[in-house]
Amino acid sequence: MRNLTVDAVILKKHPRGEHDVSVTLYTPTLGRIQATAKGARKIHSNFTGHLDTLNICRIQLYCNGPHFTITQCQAVNTHKEIRDDLERSVMALLLLEIVQKTTYSTETGTRLFELIRTTLEQLSKTTKTTLTVESFKIKLLAELGVLPDFAHCTVCQRKWLETDHITLEEGGQITCYDCSTAHKQVAIVPFTIAKLGYHLHQQTYETIEKFALTLSEENHLKKLTDFFLHNFLEREINTHHILAPRA
Ligand SMILES: [Zn+2]
Q: If you measure from the C-alpha of residue 162 to the centroid of ligand 1, how many angstroms do you get, rounded to a whole number?
C-alpha cells in the first residue's frame, strides 16, 4: 500500500455505484490505469470540474495492489479552447480513443504522455485539426515501434526518388517496385505522401503547422495511418488474447 502523486490525462470517465466515478488515466510513470474516485458523484464533491475527460491533472493516488483510488485531484489544464469548438472536441476524443486502444498499464510512458500533452496543446490553438491528429498518429506509431521508415525502401534500404513506384504491403512494409511481392500489395503510396509521412514524424508541431495539405493528401495520409494502426491493433489483440485478457 502506498501513496503516489502523478500527472495524468483523463481518457474516460464513467459512474460507478451510486456515488463513485471510475476513470481511465494515462500517466507518465504507470502507463494506462483505471482508478476510482470515491464520492465524486456527490454534488459538493472536491472532484467536481477536475476529473473530466480531456483534463490534464495532478493526482494523488492510493495504491493497494492493482487497485488505485484517487484521493486528490487538481486540474492543470482543462483545454477550454478544445471544449468550446466542436471540430477540435471531436478530434481530441478520437485522439483519446486511440490512446486507450493502443496503450497498457505497467509500461512507462513519459514520452507518450508528453506527446499527448503537446498534441492537445496544439489542438487548442490550431485550425488544422486533421493535420494535427494525423501527425499524432504518425508520432504515436513511431513510439509504438511500428512506423516504417518513410524515406527508404524497407527491403533494399534505397532512398526514394521522385520517380519511384512505392507500394505498401500487407505486413506494413513500404517497398520499391523491385522488392515488392505482387500478391501482397495493398496500396500505392505517392512519393509526396511518403515524404509527408517522413516529415510529420520528424518535425515539431510548430513546423507542421506551416504545412498546407490538399484534401486528397489528407485522405491518402489518413488511409495510411489507419492501415498501420489497424495492423498494430490486430497484432496486439491476437497476442494479448493468447497471453492475458485485456484490462
Ligand atoms: Zn527496394
A: 14
User: Cα(2) to centroid of ligand 1, in Å?
Assistant: 53
pTM here is 0.91
**Domain annotation covers residue 149:** yes
Distance, in Å, from the CA atom of 143 to the CA atom of 28, rounded to the nearest integer, reads 14
Quick check: is 204 in a domain? yes
Per-residue pLDDT tens digits for 99-117: 999 987 766 789 999 999 9
pLDDT tens-place string over residues 8-17:
999 999 999 8
At residue 77, the 3 state secondary structure works out as strand
Separation of CA 202 and ligand 1 centre (Å): 22
What is the whole-number distance in angstroms between the Cα of residue 194 and the centre of ligand 1? 14
Number of domains in the chain: 2
| CATH number of the domain enclosing 50 | 2.40.50.140
> Residue 124: left if φ>0, alpha if ψ -120 to 50, beta else—which one?
alpha
Ligand 1: centre distance to CA 158 (Å): 6
Answer yes or no: is pLDDT of 52 > 90. Answer: yes
Asked, for residue 226, whether it belongs to a domain, the answer is yes
How many Å lie between the centroid of ligand 1 and the Cα of residue 167?
A: 10
Can you give the residue range of the structural domain that contains 227? 126-243
Cα of 118 vs centre of ligand 1, distance in Å, is 35
- For residue 233, how far is its CA from the centre of ligand 1 (angstroms)? 26
Mean pLDDT, rounded, for 54-78: 94
- At position 192, the amino acid (one-letter code) is T
Computed from CA positions of residues 115, 121, 126, 127, in that sequence, does the dihedral angle turn out positive or negative?
positive
CA 200 – ligand 1 centroid, Å: 22
| CA-based end-to-end distance of the chain | 21
Residues 135 and 73 in one domain: no
Domain contains 52: yes
